[in-house]
Design brief:
Length: 154
Amino acid sequence: MQENLDRTDLKILRLLQADGRLGNAEIAKRVNTSAATCHRRTQRLFAEGYLTGVRALVAPQRVEKGTLAIVGVVLDRSTPESFGAFEDAVKALPVVLDCHVVAGDFDYFLKIRVRDLADFNKLHAEKLLRLPGVRQTRTFFVMKEVIDNAPLDF
């Protein structure tokens, strides 16, 4: 990482990670460059894949998505085809925020937000258990979010 990025690039990344709403002029001021130089650097950071997007964080409770569940999934087979079919199907579920292949007792962990337990129960019965290759699921309901979407430390 350090080979391609200098201190100014790292400052730009940190500033945008902390507040994606910062305008180019404000970023330029904070990193002590011209607006044009800052814009070129930011565009290069996007082009080279250091920045992959900018978005607002929505308060889940305000949009009736206050229940967070982590679901461990075990597939019936560990083949590239079964993994591919599962991944294609899970990508079509808008309630799935994250999907990770993991090592250990589960094949995948899903991070899911729903309105409440009844909403999750319906989702579980109608969608999750019907995903291709699912042999078993185990659900963990989050009681308190201590750290959520923390910024990367670099």
